[in-house]
Structure formats: structure tokens, C-alpha cells
Amino acid sequence: MSRVIDAIFEKGVFRPLQDVKLKEHEKVSIKVISRDEWHRRFDRIIEKIHKKSSRFTPEEIEADISRSIKEVRAEKSGR
User: Fold this and answer.
1) What beta strand segments (E) does the chain contain?
2) pLDDT in tens, 7-53
3) Could you report how far apart the first and last alpha carbons of the chain are, in Å?
4) DSSP string of 36-57?
5) What is the DSSP letter of 24?
6) Are 8 and 15 in contact (CB under 8 A)?
7) What residues does 45 pair with on adjacent strands?
8) Residues paired with residue 13 on neighbouring β-strands, in sequence order
9) DSSP conformation class of 11
């Protein structure tokens, strides 16, 4: 299972800021990205979404999302 956790780097060691529920000595891969960089990337993604969705009304977007949710649920239930 992969997930994003917050950690702090102290004295050469990453210390998780919440319980990570790992076995002692379990090996993991860590991708380090500063919060500033994460926010910059997130802001760029949001900007792209806004540019691409600006030609649609909120009602059209909501209808498309609702239709997609129904399709996924139908697919999961085997219909």
C-alpha cells in the first residue's frame, strides 16, 4: 500500500509525524519533495484544470461527474 506521510528530517533521520504502521526493519522507498515544491506542482495542476474546464458550466461539470460515478459503480458491481 502506498501513501503520503508527513515527516521531519532531524539529525540525519526522517521521523514520521504520524503512525505509519510498518513492521520493524521493513524496507520502504521514500520520495522527498518539499512542501513548497508540492504546493507549486498542485497550483499548476489546478490552473490547468481551471483553464480546461472554464468553457463548461458548473451544471455540465456536475452532470459529467455524476454520470462517471454511475458508470464506475455499475462496472464495479458487474452490470
Assistant:
1) 7-10, 13-16
2) 999 999 999 999 988 899 999 888 889 889 999 999 999 999 999 99
3) 28
4) HHHHHHHHHHHHHHHHHHTTS-
5) T
6) yes
7) none
8) 10
9) T
Residue 37: how many other CB atoms lie within 10 Å: 10
Single-letter amino acid code for the residue at 23:
K
Report how far residue 75's alpha carbon sits from residue 59's, in angstroms, rounded to the nearest whole number.
24
Beta bridge partners of 16: 7
Amino acid at site 55: R
**How many residues comprise the chain?**
79
- The count of other CB atoms within 10 Å of the CB of residue 39 is 10
Sign (positive or negative) of CA dihedral 60, 66, 68, 71: negative
The grid coordinates listed for 16 are 514520521
Assessment of whether the complete model's pTM goes beyond 0.90: no
Location of C-alpha cell 504520524 = 18
Q: Which three cell numbers stand for residue 15?
A: 521521523
